């Protein structure tokens, strides 16, 4: 990958509004049968207890996309630990991306998902990623490497999650 563009924030906050219940959004974030369908198609596994393991395994589709871009994708692409879980409202995990050796060498970061129910069957989903000490990861999840085949980061993943929950289809369908 290229050198990250200066200016990727140490704390990044993304919010999307989704016409779905908090429970459905929670399931879409925490269950592999959902996470395999949107974003980068990884299989998320959570042990939803404080100190429990969190990891994302690559699907064959994920590996094929990496290979098409000239990158080998490991079996486990993200690892971390559950800091706290309050279904279906809040999930806090540590996060280490393992796909790029330089990013894998950066310190672990923290992601918080907060789901708030609003009137009219709509919820807000706010993702806060604390990225101090991880400048390459900060650039990646900000979407700064999208033009280099690395995807659109958190904004893209949340957009596809919203689309899937509201329409039943992903961007590719």
Automatic annotation (TrEMBL):
Recorded hits in InterPro entries, A to Z, give: ASHA1/2-like_C, START-like_dom_sf
The superkingdom listed in its UniProt entry is Bacteria
- Pfam hit, one: AHSA1
List each copy of the Activator of Hsp90 ATPase homologue 1/2-like C-terminal domain by range. 19-166
Q: Which family does it belong to?
A: Belongs to the AHA1 family.
Protein name as catalogued? SRPBCC domain-containing protein
Per the UniProt record, the source organism is Sphaerisporangium rhizosphaerae
